[in-house]
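Exercise 3.2. Students should predict the tertiary structure of the chain below and write it as structure tokens, then compare their answer with the key that follows.

Predict this chain's 3D structure.
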Amino acid sequence: MAPPFSSLVFTVHRREPELVAPAKPTPREYKLLSDIDDHDGVRCQIPNIQFYRHDPSMQGKDPARVIREALARTLVFYYPLAGRIREGPNRKLMVDCTGEGVLFIEADADVTLDQFGDPLQPPFPCWKELLYDVPGSSGVLNRPLLHVQVTRLRCGGFIFAFRFNHTMCDAAGQSQFMSTVGEMARGRLAPSIPPVWERHLLAARDPPRVTCKHPAYDNAYDEIGETTVPYDDLRSFFFGHAQVSALRKLVPQHLRNSSTFELLTACFWRCRTIALQVNPDVEVRMVCTVNSRSKFNPPLPLGYYGNMFAHSAAVTQARKLCENPLGYANAIQLVKQAKADITEEYMKSLADFMVIKGRPHYSMVRAFLVSDVTRSGYRDANYGWGKAVYDGPTRVHVVSFHIPFKNKEGEDGTLITLALPAQAIEIFVKELDGMLKGSKPNDENGSKSVLSSP
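Answer key:
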């Protein structure tokens, strides 16, 4: 059995960072981002990590070389990603298509894939060595828009870690790009889905007019002292069929057809608020990302890889959320409504809101932040070595991610990451286990507890 990841120590030998430019000349021009792309909530870099097993059919192939060459060919089609972000008047962001390229690091580690544990799940040991932060590469402006590190493992497998500038694309856009890299690595000459820029489709109207409420941005700059929680303990929780079914039995009949995301998000929101021992008289919020791709009529062009999600919020009093059972508290209904609020008009109103309000950050005041990447498609990226064994966050501090996952028994389900102070995480686990085990009052054993990995 592999040692616990907390005790796993290994050495990574990195080559000097290099810039990978497009394999052919590309247009030199400026391209405006949309008004959904450039608000403060996405002015950041998002890390991700993929683990791949050794494949005997790829014997003699170097994953670092294969991926480097595939990146160069992909950037011919996605040439804005080889440029740099500039900021213009009124904080408007644009891409300077310089063709400089993306940051690439080739590395080797004296560790095998199995030593990371079974199943693979975050947080991962020495993850900063697996995605080295090159001095001067962080930030949004005037920096490479993609940072990649390919680390070969002693067993013949490899780790592909990357960091995207979030202003350029959301999870679906990143997945589209990575799928194209996989296609190029496997010999295609052009993407099966050609990339589409067309960021003007999500630009503010002239004149801008806010027609919807945007509660995710309420009090964004108020009560700053309540926005920061010391997240010093990260856990991962697996929910398979048994755990999800157990939670469904706790909610009223009319809510039992709720999606898995709605059910689990409501459950975690409630347990997290209890664990943090929030003042029962204050308002708490759940802020989730909602993909708007299906909301447009006519739909945006296939291949559009810009940000198309919105931060939507559910707000309630802490007392109502914590002191009532999961179903009675209507936490699920609040989550459902937050998702339903996102429409085509909402997205147009949001673009207008950003221009009028100066592109603010969403509120983090007493907020539970959630992102569902179960349908992002990252895991399907195939560079010649098959699908990733794990694909998702490296280590999460603020956002709780829903990740598609297969446990060691081979059961498909959802892995949820959660970071809290050490004392609070123990309260959270106790509360969650109590809900699961209490879901069958007549069953002494109750539901099997979820997998919790420190």
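Discussion points: The chain has nine helices and 17 strands. The mean pLDDT is 90.
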